[in-house]
Every structure is written in structure tokens, then in C-alpha cells.
Amino acid sequence: MTFATTAVRTSWHPIREASLLSGLPESTLRYYESIGIIGPISRDPSSGHRRYSDADVDTLLAIACINTTGMSLNQMREYIEHRQGGPQAASHQVELLAQQACKLEQEMKELELRRQYVEVKTQYWQAIGRNDVEMAQEVLDRGEGVISAIRSLARGQEGGLRHIQLPQA
């Protein structure tokens, strides 16, 4: 009995191609290798240039995605280290992602506060432009909570927006 075997061939990609495929700049690929976010990359024996395997490119794509969430370098390193861990690593991955979700939620609150502040100031200056001082003061009075919250954020007060109740627009 004869069995046909198909060898799985690995494609090799120079750094420029790996950069294009992953969306990460070449300098970032080198940096991530130097700080251990990605493991050592194979080198072409004749030139010494980096050559990325298909598996390396898959890892780079995962890194690019997790990077877009704003995850810190240390958290990205942890995430990639546990990526192939299966069920044993699942709780660790969930915890990392939950932490990032909380961080993003905080950033969304801050972004919403900034948007509301711009809205208040726009309405204020529209009233000033119409020479309607009474309406301008009313806008400031209605927007007092937003203005107070943005001032706290600008001062970098401890706790950020956690203790600030955003006014409804």
C-alpha cells in the first residue's frame, strides 16, 4: 500500500513583505523582536536578512490586531506568550482582554466628555456670535457639569472620570 504525502511548504517573507502583510512598520517588527514580543526571526543564511515564515506572519497579524486595541507592550507580550496555550491559558487571556476592555471603556467616557465639551462651547460661541449674552450664560449654566468634569480631566485629577457622572447631552 502506498500513501501519498503532501509536504506542507512554508513560504518565507522578507521584512518588507511581512510589514505589508501585517500592517506593522519594518522598524516596529525589528523593535518587537528586540524586546521579545515576537521570538527570534530566522535569517537568510547568505545575506543575514530577516525572513518571516507563514507562522511568523500569523503571529504578526495577531499582534497588529491586539496593538490596535491600545494594549501595553507588556500586556501584548503576555497575550502572545499565552496565545497557543489552549484551555490552560484561556482564563489568563480573558483577564488580559477584560482589563483592556475596562481601559477602553474609560477612554470612551473621556472621549464622550470631550465631545460634550465641544458641543457646549460651540453653543456658547454661537450665542455670543448672535450677541445673545443671556443664551450664552444659559448654555454655560446647563453645561456646568461638563465643564467641571473636563477641568478635572485636564488637571489629571486622581481617578479620572471614575467618580464623575457625565451629564446627558
UniProtKB/TrEMBL annotation:
Pfam families: MerR_1 (PF13411). Keywords: DNA-binding. Residues 12-82 form the HTH merR-type domain. Signal peptide: none annotated. This is HTH merR-type domain-containing protein. It comes from Bombiscardovia nodaiensis.
